[in-house]
Amino acid sequence: MRLLEPFTLTNLALPNRAVMASLTRRRAGPGHLATPLMGEYYAQRAGAGLILSERIEVDPALAGNGQAGAPTAPALFNLAQARAWRAVVAQVHAAGGRIFAQLSHAGRISHPALRGGLAPVAPSARAAAGRIFTPAGEAPLPVPRALTLAEIAGLVEQFAEAAAYARGAGFDGVEIDAAHGLLIDQFLRSGSNLRSDAYGGSARARVRFLLEVTEAVADIWGVGRVGVRLSPWSGCHGMRDALPRDTFTHAAAALDQLGVAFLHLVEQPGRRPSALASLRGHFGGAVIAAGGYTRESAEAVLATGLADCVAFGSSFLANPDLPERFRRSAPLNPPDPATFLAGGARGYTDYPSLHS
């Protein structure tokens, strides 16, 4: 089975090509600290060829979000958070696994109540579609404040600082989250980036922020331990682009020139042309495909050569020993969506393995 064959990701040996996708679980503790329960969760899934952590926020404004006592999203903008992640990474390594930190900034997908009263920021003052949960309940996503040039440079530095903390925490590398309507994706798309300066207008200009972040992170890690996640056709949070193929082929080609280790491409099932087919010819590094894959469809896409590895989300969530289940053609545990963001061990670390 090709999915279970080893693969070398630049200079990191993976025992198989089944990647654990980044999954939002919101089990972090006060101060956005990773917890021992999170360490247990990731260590249970150490049989993945590579684990991509849940989205880790780089935004220091979250320090005053008023939700310090609630289960929430983890972050990596201070030493205490790095120490907490170090314990998680140590558990993964002790179990024989490999884990990359996924670094992310929400941008306009936020609310003043989650940022110590500060307005969300974005490339332009255009609200995203949808609603968001706050301490006071569900609220519409607000109109963000457009970033100044000086603030954009500061955001690049935030990603670099988080990358340095990730390195200190012992992660094996980092993935830059430029997908699903979050800040970097907001810069990439013409529907959310209305700027007329060096960061807006043409595809080349809209890709600039992504490249600056990637270069800053690679200065700390080396390009061989840096990957980027893109979701070219996603309409998440009302995202759109006038010419998505042009935008994302430009991004893929520019990242190829930088020499990053991989592109993690989130597909829209049934969408044609696929992101893989559109972008593979513009990027010579490894490609990780994601988007509702089964064992059979993963084998099929690997056989085409369009992808080198395949990321699994809810399948890994519910099956800590997913590669072994693939190997044995064993049935899979069904995921329980009611517990995805519920907090606690239920629906998190209590899914049985074959040896339970």
Tell me briefly what this model is.
By secondary structure, the protein is α/β, with parallel strands linked by helices.
Spatial arrangement of strands, main beta sheet? 3-4-5-10-11-12-13-14
pLDDT below 50 for ≥5 consecutive residues: which ranges?
Answer: 66-71
The structure class reads alpha/beta
Distance between the termini: 25 Å
The CATH architecture term is Alpha-Beta Barrel
Q: How many domains make up the coordinates?
A: 1
Characterise this structure.
The chain is globular, with a radius of gyration of 19 Å. With 356 residues, the protein is an alpha/beta fold. The protein has one domain: Alpha-Beta Barrel (TIM Barrel), CATH 3.20.20. Strand 1 and strand 2 form a beta hairpin. Strands 3-4-5-10-11-12-13-14 form an 8-stranded parallel barrel, surrounded by 5 helices. About 2% of the residues have low confidence. It is built from 11 helices and 14 strands.
List the helices and strands and how they pair.
Elements: E1 7-9, E2 12-14, E3 18-20, H1 36-44, E4 50-57, H2 79-94, E5 99-104, E6 121-122, E7 131-134, E8 137-140, E9 145-146, H3 149-168, E10 173-178, H4 183-188, H5 203-206, H6 208-221, E11 226-230, H7 244-258, E12 262-266, H8 275-279, E13 286-290, H9 295-304, E14 309-312, H10 314-318, H11 322-328
Parallel strand pairs: 3-4, 3-14, 4-5, 5-10, 6-9, 10-11, 11-12, 12-13, 13-14
Antiparallel strand pairs: 1-2, 7-8
Helix pairs in contact: 1-2, 3-6, 6-7
List keywords for this structure.
356 residues, alpha/beta, TIM Barrel, eight-stranded parallel barrel, two-stranded antiparallel ribbon, globular
